[in-house]
Structures are given as C-alpha cells and as structure tokens.
Specification:
Chains A, B: InterPro entries: DNA_Rcmb_RecR (IPR000093), Rcmb_RecR (IPR023627), Rcmb_RecR_Znf (IPR015967), TOPRIM_dom (IPR006171), TOPRIM_RecR (IPR034137). 2 copies of one chain form a homodimer. Chain A is α/β, with parallel strands linked by helices. The first copy, chain A, has 8 helices and 6 strands, in the order H-H-H-E-E-H-E-H-E-H-E-H-E-H.
Amino acid sequence: MSLFGLSLGRLIEALCCLPGVGPKSAQRMAFYLLESNREGGQRLAQALLEALDKMTHCQTCRILSETDLCSLCADSRRDHGQLCVVEMPSDVQAIEQATNYAGRYFVLMGHLSPLDGVGPEALGMDLLAKRLDTDQIREVILATNLTVEGEATAYYISELAQTRGITTTRIAHGVPLGGELEFIDSNTLSHAFQSRQHL
Amino acid sequence: MSLFGLSLGRLIEALCCLPGVGPKSAQRMAFYLLESNREGGQRLAQALLEALDKMTHCQTCRILSETDLCSLCADSRRDHGQLCVVEMPSDVQAIEQATNYAGRYFVLMGHLSPLDGVGPEALGMDLLAKRLDTDQIREVILATNLTVEGEATAYYISELAQTRGITTTRIAHGVPLGGELEFIDSNTLSHAFQSRQHL
C-alpha cells in the first residue's frame, strides 16, 4: 500500500472494518472517493463524526437515538401495555415498516451468548425487569431471531414476564409468504409442520 | 430514517455514495459502526479526512501520491526508456504486484469517452505528449483495458507515439492462464484465435 503513500493505506485499512468489505473492495472504495467523488468523501467523514457524536441510546428502550428518550418512547399515542422485545435497532425499523404495531419496544442490542461473555446484564435485562415491574404491561411480544441464541434469550425473557403474571407471545415462525415448499430449508419446514394450526 | 434521528439518516445517505453499497448495506454499516465499533468509525472518519487532505496527483505520471513526485517517478533505478500507459492507479498496483516491470508509468485516470465529455485534455494527453517529446522514451506499452473505449484510447496514444518514431506495444489479450476454453466468453476466445502466434 505504500506505493501511493501512507494515508491511502490507512484509509483502505479503516474501510476494511466495515461489514462485508474486504481489502479489494476497500481499495476500490478508497480510489473512488479520492479520484471521482471527493465531495462525497468529505460528506461521509462529516456525517460519520456527527453521528458518532450525537447518536446515543434511548434510556427507556435502548434503541439508537439522538435524545435521551427516542421518538417512539416519547410518542404518547403508542400503547404502553404492549412491549415488543427485539435484538437490534434494525429489527425495530423492519417491524415499523411492515406492521401497524403501535406499542412500545425494548432493544436488547444482541442476544444471550455465554461463550462470548454476553450475559443478562449486557442486554439490559435489569432495565427490562424494571419496566416489567413499573410500566403497566399486559403483553410481552418476543421478536428475537429464531436462532439457538435468540430462542434462549426469548425463553429467559418469558420467564421474567411470566413470574410477574404478564402474557408472553412469540412471533410466528414457518414458511414465508410466497415461499415454495420445495425451496424452503428443512429446519423451517420441520418447524412449520410441528407448529401447524387448526383452520 | 427519521425513526432514529437525522444524523443517522445523513450517515446512511453518505455511505450510499460508496461503490457497491446500496441503502440496505449502508444501514447495516451505519448500525455496525454506531453499535459495535465506534472506535473503527472514528478511525475511518480521520483516515478519510487525512487522505482527502494529503493525497494529490504526481505531476509527472498523474498517479495518486502524497508528494508532487510519486515514489515510482522519484526512483532513479527505474528505466526512463519504457513508459507504460494505464487507465487507473489500481492498474499500476496490479502490474507492480504481478510483473517485474521496472520502467515508468503514465496514468490517464480514465479513457477517451466523447459521449461523457471525456476528451484528450481530461486524460492529460498534452502532458503525455510532452513526456514523449522530452524524456528519452524507447517504448510505449499500452495497458489500457480491452474495452471499446480502452482500445480507442490505446489507438490515440499509439498515433502520438508513432508520429514521434517511438515503438509502441500493446499487452497481450487472450485466454487467461488456467482458463478452460469452454468457460471463456466468446469475444475473448475469438480474439485469442485471431491473435494466435507461431510456436
């Protein structure tokens, strides 16, 4: 990389930290920014510094937010009685875009993973338990991913809720809409069979 | 995007300017930088600002460089008699990594493309002509891409060189090493057939 100077090497190395970007794409990005779009590069650097400076976590639901209380938690029209627990902020965005859910959220920022040292504290379970105690929650909707860790996390939270007598639901898993049976992976199909429902 | 605040929206928009990055990947990158790797984000912003500030073009060969004269042009051990003309700085890097070429370079920063308003001036052809006049060049090696525009650019430069009585060569095109004939695209195969050489 020293062919073009140290600062280019450092830029390529820094771009490699982005998810899905390896040395070749990082090099392509660096050349593009320096050759064809310096204005875009300036804008990216500024936007990055601004976002890193301003974005923090909502103190109620742990979502990414510029303010102590995020726009969803601050919205008094949303139902306090429903609490949807998800793993990541992007899950909130997906649910907001796809459904008409009008309750509250709690973002774990991950899932239980003892081997990686991620225990209940790191996921803010104490904050969640406090909300279950103080907010008047009727239903906890578990929308963690259907992975081993996501399932374990959902189970842990269902225990928290059920000891407090709160209804707990899990979003449905099975064959996606428009999915053709022959192309569905066998785990999903097996799950869909076991969870079949009466018509 | 206003779900999480304006600065996140701006960051996602700015990331979209990178080649090969669409709104979904940009969102994933933004969440990753803000959630899991703030240090990497800071480093990226700093590296970007530093590179944009320091990187300029070599005044002799037009390659990206931190200094007025790039490390290749400043290296007195390299042969002044050979000049390899390429389209992009990444081409120089590829040639340096793959071959033991020890001559000089000239980087066009593109190819002739009259429809996009890219004429000889934009590619520094006047600078190239001056080098052909003043440097004692024995051979011009044309290593532009084998596209319509790359070929037209190579032809233009070969005219420049030949009117000055300088030998002009073009890098070989054909079936790549290890390439199996049945999987080679028909244009390449046709070209390889036409350019067959005596054993």
